[in-house]
Amino acid sequence: MTIYNLLVRAYGFIIKLSSFRNKKARQWVSGRKDWRQRLKTDLANIGEGERLWVHCASYGEFEQGRTLMEAIRKNHPRYRIVLSFFSPSGYEAFYQWPGADVVCYLPLDTKKNAVDFIGIVRPGAVIFIKYEFWLNFLFELNKKAIPTYLVSAVFKDHHPFFKWYGRIFRRSLLTFKKLFIQDDNSGRLLQGIGISNYEVCGDTRFDRVIEIRENFRPLPFFEEFCAGHTILVAGSTWPGDEELLIAAFLQLSDPNLKLIIAPHHVDEKSIAGLVQLLEKNKLPFLLYSDQNQDLSKQIVIVDSIGLLSKIYYYATVAYVGGGFDSGIHNCLEPAVYLKPVLFFGDDFEKYNEAVELVKLKAIKNVMDPTQLEIGFLNFVNNWTERIEIENTLKTYFEKNSGVTKKVLDSINLG
């Protein structure tokens, strides 16, 4: 634990140094200022009731845990939900989410912070979503015999639990009352290190994207922009994705094709970079935030968050970004609308849904603009294949739904 604690403190120090120049790091630091008093005040305002603490690393994990929190709110209304985030991208998007009674940052994982945070919250149960193993918090929860669960977890052989140096992380797995894992391979890996407190349940993200699809309502701007056109929706894009997309768009040279680009980051710098790329290639575009522009233009930049999961509805073909950077983003969001999907790169083995959907030939990876062009045209022009993809995806989502209920029934909050 000594080395771990030193690394945690070093991480906190680096973030503080970065905060002088980096906005996200600055939010990370400022969001934790006076956290003890702020948390006490927030908890005092929510009244009596047993408390359930749910922790999500960031935006994606929140979406993964959302259906579970909503089900708890509906079926176990006596619980007051305390929702914590580690990353500003999650907190800033959902700090006013009405599904939780208190939304806060998780303080840095020191022993004192863990003791104080748990002592202030006094949770009756704790749920961590997918990837969060903060050792001081986990060992303190275990010491206080507070039932703790990990939901929608995936384990891969490159994770520290399965390395020679991973003993302390293997110990942390024993602090959970139950690990709800996504697949059988994760189970085999856990068995190999003597961990048996798991249940294969699947991924709660399936329930979330199905819920979004079922509650879809038309978006007037995109109804008008897309009407009568072939649509490529590119979601969660990074600069590398955008360069690839623009190159392929130019090669396609189709006046009936429209491109919707929703960048992963919508800060001023990211949008300016994309604008510069389009202007360099002499491609007219409009910004979603300026809807008074000419809707006959072929390209729109979605400079707003929270819309992408609905915009995918309008896609003829979807492109999911991230392959140039930390890894491809959520392929399930477009696939749930029974849309064929393209993405960049061949390093996608750690994403179960991508592996499965590639095998099912419902999504395809590409390595350059020409492959993107060919893949797009194949999906657009091959009607028989499109019908097969729709049927395949329909079966796929039916098979993988209902995970939230399985988890909630197993936790048995009473």
List descriptors.
47% helix, 19 helices, seven-stranded parallel sheet, alpha/beta, 414 residues
Short summary of the structure?
This protein has helices at residues 2-18, 23-30, 35-44, 59-75, 88-94, 111-121, 135-143, 167-173, 184-192, 205-214, 220-226, 239-252, 268-280, 308-311, 332-335, 352-359, 369-381, 383-400, 403-411; strands spanning 51-56, 80-85, 102-105, 125-129, 148-153, 178-181, 198-200, 230-237, 257-263, 286-287, 299-301, 317-320, 341-344, 363-366. With 414 residues, the protein is of the alpha/beta class.
Question: Would you kindly provide a written description of the structure presented here, covering whatever features stand out?
Answer:
The protein has 414 residues and is α/β, with parallel strands linked by helices. A seven-stranded parallel beta sheet has the order 3-2-1-4-5-6-7, with helices on both faces. Strands 10-11-9-8-12-13-14 form a seven-stranded parallel beta sheet. It is built from 19 helices and 14 strands. Helix 6 (111-121) crosses helix 7 (135-143).
Q: Please estimate the helix content.
A: 40-55%
Rg for CA atoms: 22 Å
C-alpha geometry: globular
Let me know the largest β-sheet. 7 strands, parallel
Percentage of β-strand residues: 15-25%
Record field, number of beta strands: 14
Q: Give unreliable regions as ranges.
A: none
Provide the spatial order of strands within the biggest beta sheet.
3-2-1-4-5-6-7
Secondary structure category? alpha/beta
Helical segment tally? 19
Mean of residue pLDDT values:
94
**N→C terminal distance:** 35 Å
